[in-house]
Amino acid sequence: MLIxxxxxxxxxxxxxxxxxxxxxxxxMAVDPLDAQRCLRRARELGLRxxxxxxxxxxxxxxxxxxxxxxxxxxxVLAHAAxxxxxxxxxxxxxxxxxxxxxxxxxxxxxxxxxxxRTHLCLYADPTxxxxxxLFSGDxxxxxxxxxxxxxxxxxLLFDSFSTTLAPLPDATRVFPGxxxxxxxxGFTLDREPSNTAARDMAQRVSGLxxxxxxxxxxxxxxxxxxxxxxxxxxxxxxxxxxxxxxxxAGPREVFLYLRELRNRW
Length: 265
Known about the structure:
single chain, six-stranded mixed β-sheet
């Protein structure tokens, strides 16, 4: 499986992805807002875009669909329940569906509501030649999570993390829909100042351009993403002064408090 990350160089700090079969050169474009950048990079790599995938219905992820379809004739794949809001969807998908690219690539759809109620991630299981990969859209960011202010639900987002993403192996590479790593690490350090993994990563990425940001894996994320560290005593102690804090608060409550704090941070 070939993975090419395409930086949009826009105010929204979008990442697009080309996922390709190394045997056939057939590719799928994921959330290609800037269709021209994706098409140009595909030509440079000798890839043929045969499918388009939207993780969810927000226009900063679907806005390039029409131009991409016009240039390639590729079908658009998206969550079945989001198809009407996206428009032009050729095939509606649900959690558990398999998306195939060429002869050698299989991606499993993970139903991950929260950022919106109709959000899909794509997961590539480990193979003899590839480590696993997660195309997480706006569900999981590097060192952070998606917001829920445009049709989402933080309760559902927690459920997606605790039931769907939690079992994935540490080796899973994370490919999010936006580049927010440095800022998100700042939030982690605000909540957990003693987190050396977050501090080391913040130093590592200081001054890097967005297109040169490292690809993290879930093992690293579990060390410096506050939303994956819900049992950290330091994070919990820092929340005790929050209005409405409950002495018996568990991981769900910690997640929801952090999500609210991140909205204001």
